[in-house]
Amino acid sequence: MDFKNLVIIGERINPGFRSSKKLFDESDIDGIRKLAASQAEKGAKYLNVNIGDRAMKDQAFYREVIRAIQSTVSLPLSFDFPNREVQEICLETYDPARANGARPIMNSISELRWDMLELYKKFRFKVILMVSERMEDGERISNKTPDEVYMTARRMIRYILETADNISINDIFIDVSVCPVAGDMEGLIRMAVESIKKIGSDRELKGVHMSVGLSNISIMVPPQALNNSPLKLYLESAFLTNTVPFGLDTIIGTPGREYKNLPENDFVLQGFNEALKLDGIEAVMRIQKLYME
User: For the whole model, what pTM was predicted?
Assistant: First the structure.
């Protein structure tokens, strides 16, 4: 992988993947152990853990999954569920000693879910902040511009640093949400790229981490581009090429993928960059030109 300092949070322990969902449906603890070990061997620095809706119904199983993973690998875990009760179960079960003292990550807090931060009074963890939405006059509002994302990030970081004792900016990850580029009619990928640049250029935010769910970008496209390059990998690499220099340092993704720092004349990067400048159907059609005659 060209991006040597990129931290990968292994994404596969998640029912969004059909093979993983089958493990949960069948309560296949041995299979979950193997999945954790595979991601660790391929270079993950954290493991994302999300068992889906079963987390609300079967807390005993969630505890069993966490203990099984921690008995298999020594990586810290990232608990991915937007519910305080579930997060408390995860944090109670997590054993820092089995992760060489490393704290887990809580994913994710937004301005609509500040109650989750109250768990910091009992536990120590890092946080992923969701800045794609904000609370304004008691209403949930989706952020539509890089400035709105940036200001939400600044506001949330300031609140956490003032509220949670002994937490540092280095314990905070900003999740700049991305969507499938093949269906991006609203310029959300462009907004993500520009938001990362704004956050990364703010000296007051130096030390904060930025992350995305990278594999979301390449959903809905075929495996190969017209020039026979691996399209999914190269679209994800195009995003990294545009953002890592400006501070993106963490992805929730699949360990072992050989992400490339693409040259300016790369066929996929050129198409990706041109699509960033377009709006609506024209942006989608430019991506389609990468794989359709």
Answer: 0.95
* Alpha-carbon span 74 to 45, nearest angstrom: 10
188-200 and 146-163 helices, crossing angle to 10°: 50
- Compute the distance between CA of residue 214 and CA of residue 236 in angstroms, rounded to an integer: 6
H/E element, 174? strand 172-175
pLDDT, tens digit (0-9, with 9 covering 90-100), for 197-248: 999 999 999 999 999 999 999 999 999 999 999 999 999 999 999 999 999 9
293 pLDDT higher than 90: no
Please identify which residue in the block is written with the tokens 């904000």. Answer: 134
Of residues 40, 35, 43, the one with CA closest to residue 14: 35
Report strand pairing: 139-142 vs 133-136. antiparallel
Structure tokens at 272: 């990706």
Q: Which domains does the chain have, with CATH numbers?
A: 7-288 (3.20.20.20)
pLDDT mean across residues, the chain: 96
* Average pLDDT of the residues in 79-98: 96
Quote the radius of gyration of the chain (alpha carbons, Å): 19
**CA neighbours within 13 Å on the CB side: how many for 171?**
18
Single out the residue of 72, 167, 235, 124 nearest to residue 49, CA to CA. 72
Mean pLDDT of 243-272: 97
Residue 137 has pLDDT above 90, yes or no: no
Minimal CA–CA distance to 79: which of 57, 46, 53?
Answer: 46
- Secondary structure of the chain: what % helix, strand, coil (to 5)? 45, 15, 35
Among 155, 196, 190, smallest CA distance to 176 is for 196
CB atoms < 10 A from the CB of 242, how many?
22
